[in-house]
Structures are given as C-alpha cells and as structure tokens.
Amino acid sequence: MLDIIIRGATIYDGTGGKPFIGDIGIQKDVITQVGKIQEKAKKIIEAKNFILCPGFVDIHSHSDYFLLVNPTADSKITQGVTTEIGGNCGYAAAPIWGEAKERREEEYQKYYKLKLGWSRLEEYFQRLEKEKIAVNYGQLIGHNTLRQSTMGSVNRPATPKEMTSMICGLEQGMKEGAVGLSTGLIYPPACYSNTEEVLQLGKACKEAGGIFTFHMRSESDKVVEAVQEVLETAKKTGVPVQISHIKTSGQRNWYKIQEIFSLIERCQKEGIDVECDRYPYIASQTGLMQVLPDWTFEGGAKGVVQTLKDSKKREKIKKEILEIHPPKEDYLNKVLIMEVMSQKNKIFEGLTIQQAASKAKKDVFEFLFDLLIEEEAAISAIYFTMSEDNLKSFLNKDYIFIASDSGCRSIKGPLAKGRPHPRIFGTFPRVIRKYVKEEKLLDLSKAIYKMTWQPAKRFHLKGRGKIEKGYFADLVLFNLDKISDTSDFLDPFHYCKGIEYVFVNGICALEKGKQTGKCAGKVLRKQQ
Quick one: pLDDT at residue 143? Predict the structure, then answer.
C-alpha cells in the first residue's frame, strides 16, 4: 500500500515538456509511481483540474539565519518552495570566525535573541538538523564572510597569508558539503578585493567541484565591466559561474542590456559555463548604506557611523552621490525605507528618503546621514531603478531562470517587521500569475522548468526538481485559475493564493492552503 496517491492531476514534470494527466504515488520520501495507479493508499488526493509540478527550487536564498528563527519557513512553503540554496551575495552563516562571527552573534542576539555558537559549516548543518526545517537546504560559502573572518573590514588587498586562510576556509567548507562559493563584490569587505583575489578563490572553488555565484561589482554604471570580470573569472579558472539577480539598474543604463547579452552568449559559444538568475520585480532590496560611496564602508557598519559623524566627510559623500545621481534623477525619491530597528524611526518605514526627510522637516541628505547613524547603519531599503521591458527580456532568455533573492519570513512573529520586498512572499506564484497568465511572456511548462528542473540541474541537486520515479517527493499542487501573489511593496505581509498542497520529501507541509507545521526538509550536503 502506498502512503499517498495524487490522482488525476495535470502533471508538469519540470523538464519543459508537454503536460499530461496522471497519478503520482508516494512511498515515504520518494515518488514511486507516475501514470495510472491501481493500488490503494493511506491517503488519496483527488486532483482533477489542478496542476501538479515539482516543488520550486530557490537557488538564491538568504534564509541562513532566518531558518533558525522560523524553521517552518512560512513565506517559502506558502509559495511552493521546497528547496533553497543559501549563503548568497557573499554572506553565509558558515564557515565563520573572527570579526565576522563576533558581528553576526551580536546582531542576531540583539535583534532576534538567536544564539549562534558555530564556526564550521558542519556545525551549522547539525544545528539546522537539530532544529528541523521545513525546506531542503544547501549552502554556498560566502566570500565576504571569509574575508571579514580573516582580515576584518579593512580596505586593502589580502596578503598571501590571508589568501591562504580564505582558501583554507573555502576548501574545508566544500569538504563539509557546500555547493560552491558566492561573492558580493558591491558590499564590504569584498568590494575591497581585486580581481586577482576573486580569481584565486575561483580557482579553489573549481578544484573543489563547486559553482561560483556573483553579486557583481556593479549592476548600474559599470555593469558591463562587472559582467566582463565574471566572464574573465570563468575563462581563467574554468569554474562554472552564475550571475545573481542580473539587472541593469538606473534608466541611463537600461540600454546596456544588449551588450550584456552579447558578452554572455559569445562566451557560451566558446564553451564558458555561465548562466544567470533573476526575480520577477523591477525593484531591488539591499542595505540603505549602499547609497554611500564604497570608501565609507571600511570598518563595517561601525565604520560607516563614525564616518557620517564627520561633517567634512558628510559633504564629500553628498558631493559624490550627486555626481552619480544628479538632482534631475530624483534618486532619493526612488529609495524606499523598508525596515529600521529602532521603534523611534518606525514612522519612516514605507516612505522614500525624500518623503521621510519632508516628514522629519530636514534636508534630505541631513536626514539620510542622521538616520544611518541612529540605526547604526542597520536599515534595509528598496530601490525602484529597473525597467519592466528589460525584466521581460531577462526572463525570456533560456539561460536565465527564477530565484527570489530573499530569506524566509512570516506574517507574524519576529520576522514580520518593516516593509519587506514582496518577492519574499510572492516570487514564484507571481511568475505564473503575471508572466504566464496575464502577460503571456512564458508558457506554463517553460516557467515551471525555470523554477524547478533548471535550477536543480544547475546546482547538481540530485533527485530533485523533476517528477520522475525515484525522485524525492517534493511537489506543489495548485489551482491555475486562482494562483496569485498578494504581497505588494506597501502591504507586503500576505501569503499567496491558489496553492493547495506542498510536499517536502513526501510529507505534507501545506494542506488545502494551510501550513501543517511539519518540517521534513533535509540539509543537502554536496557529495565530494
């Protein structure tokens, strides 16, 4: 007798092929039958007129610490995500030591009462397994974390000894099951690294059998040069590279999209292994301090605060921001305050910097600098700087697939704070609702492929991302007529509609649209 039969569903198997009507049999954590099933089962789900597909695979996640705050991974399970890859944009929960560990322990104890207590990746994995998490979870090693662990937040090249320390951390993490390395070259302290440092890490990642994912050095004025640096890394080291959340930020840069495509596709024809991912929104989310010049980041958040207390440096910063973003751009009216940590400044959440400055009756730069000081630079912001036409072009490319660039959150509890980006709650259903049903940019089979089998293949997630006998029973059953994202920028705390069931390793995590609280996710250690 089978554990579960899902009967009469319209099945999209994840490969991009045509759908078919059939049954799925589940025994323990595995799909054991696909087709017409005559056997009995302990539980039968009648799925006529519903779509059944593999669970969505989110290879650009930031759930590293949030999974310990919210092990049921509410915002991921409710949108059909069954597998995540964390440690993106250069920041990873492990391996971690030194200054990086001290800062993270201080931050998460202060804001979430979360005690960390690990250094090695295996120790972190064991902590996740002890807590029991709702999604399958693999990990990238963070370049920024390695650098801060080794040499703090200083603005200088790494010494040979420091490079050895970073590479040893990478190699040890790969041995303990990481899937690769990520970097965030726009963020401190990796923004202080030179291309040679990136190449050395890329070579070590290649030798360890990993993938190298890039939050590039620029996604705006120097986006073409940033793409070239990624491609140079791939050419010189042979490491597979993944461009994270590929974009052209700032209207003056939108036209560069064709040159970016040409560079990538020329390299692909030469046999270079490069692909990309993107979220289905035209606004990004990152720290508010990213509006500042790179030189202000030395010393991390504490260094930023000290710099902003210096009136002469404030004038220099203002001048540099205006050189990049002249007044006609109205730039600070396109940057929305997403989340602050103090109760005093909660009144500014959901307002642009310009709107908040007016509310505070301050000059916009005086307000910006004072707010960063008061919040110890721990402010998240949303940047409305992208083109919908470019987004559609990105989504249409076969080598660009879907990822959320978000950590798990909830509509209640400690993670229900601020005005978070709606991608946290709606990325995958949004693709189906907006770009399949409404815009007809993608057909459903292709969209599901971009969210399941394609990313699973890319990250070598064995037995996941496809409906096939012998594969793990990570599945999503949804109503095509009703599936939709309901989160928006000013009112984000809403789960998706239209998803009926989510199975993770054969266990029902979402039943009739409601979470069951069952946590059957597995830590996915890469096999060396």
Answer: 98
pLDDT of residue 299: 87
Q: In sequence order, which ranges of 208-341 are alpha helices (DSSP H)?
A: 223-237, 257-269, 300-308, 311-324
- Is 359 in contact with 351 (CB distance < 8 Å)? yes
Number of helices followed by number of strands (H, E) in the chain: 17, 20
Range 89-243+246-282+386-402 has CATH code 3.90.1150.10: no
Average pLDDT, the chain: 97
For residue 527, what pLDDT band results from cuts at 50, 70 and 90?
Answer: confident
Residue ranges, comma separated, of all CATH 2.30.40.10 domains in the chain are: 1-54+407-442+468-517
Q: Which fold, 1-54+407-442+468-517?
A: Urease, subunit C; domain 1 (2.30.40)
What is the number of alpha carbons within 13 Å of residue 264 lying toward its C-beta?
A: 23
- Which residues belong to CATH 3.20.20.140 in the chain? 89-243+246-282+386-402
Task: Please give the share of the chain, as a percent, with pLDDT higher than 70.
Answer: 100
Q: At what angle do helices 353-360 and 364-374 cross, to 10 degrees?
A: 90
DSSP string, 41-61: EEEEEE-TT-EEEEPEEESSB
Question: Which residues neighbour 91 within 8 Å (Cβ) at sequence distance 6 or greater?
Answer: 62, 64, 142, 144, 145, 182, 184, 187
